[in-house]
User: Which sequence fits this backbone?
């Protein structure tokens, strides 16, 4: 009789152990590099990238889903493979260098003696999936030339993600690609107007 009483508890324990033993999945953002911009910058142009600021809710390894306007869920089974700001910076460095036809895109903080032609700073506002399956990416960015603010804009993107963490990260990567293209066009256009 005692065995019958404890059997449900044993089954529950085994189920919990099986769930907790599932391997953690890791993810990385990416961005299409595309072709060079139609208005190329001189190859020796130096672009400074950063600082990149993350809100506290994104400064963590777990992927995040907004269940409602006020409730967010952290997914312990699906995590970023590296710090999110590092991932975003690395992807943008590769993408912008290719699109602008330049070789030097340096990450903030750079050496005090490093000459910077343009600097882009970022405040990431949103980067998560909604309960309805939309991946949201929102960022406020600012472009400087010789310490003078030339542009300040907000970029917003919402992509249908489908189900699952991989689909969500793929949708966020498409948003990052669109953001990179917008940056490249703005920088190239500014360079053609000002001679660099």
Assistant:
């Amino acid at each position: 009789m005692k065995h019958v009483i404890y059997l449900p508890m044993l089954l529950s324990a085994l189920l919990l152990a099986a769930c907790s033993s599932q391997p953690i999945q890791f993810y990385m953002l990416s961005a299409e590099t595309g072709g060079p911009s139609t208005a190329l910058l001189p190859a020796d142009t130096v672009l400074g990238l950063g600082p990149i600021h993350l809100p506290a809710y994104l400064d963590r390894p777990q992927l995040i889903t907004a269940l409602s306007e006020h409730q967010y869920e952290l997914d312990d089974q699906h995590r970023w493979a590296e710090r999110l700001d590092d991932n975003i910076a690395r992807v943008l460095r590769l993408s912008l260098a290719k699109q602008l036809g330049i070789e030097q895109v340096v990450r903030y903080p750079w050496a005090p003696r490093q000459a910077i032609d343009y600097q882009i700073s970022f405040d990431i506002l949103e980067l998560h999936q909604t309960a309805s399956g939309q991946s949201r990416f929102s960022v406020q960015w600012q472009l400087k030339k010789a310490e003078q603010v030339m542009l300040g804009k907000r970029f917003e993107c919402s992509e249908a993600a489908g189900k699952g963490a991989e689909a969500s990260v793929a949708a966020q990567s498409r948003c990052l690609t669109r953001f990179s293209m917008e940056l490249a066009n703005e920088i190239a256009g500014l360079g053609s107007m000002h001679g660099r």
Q: What stands out?
A: The chain is about 35% helix and 35% strand.
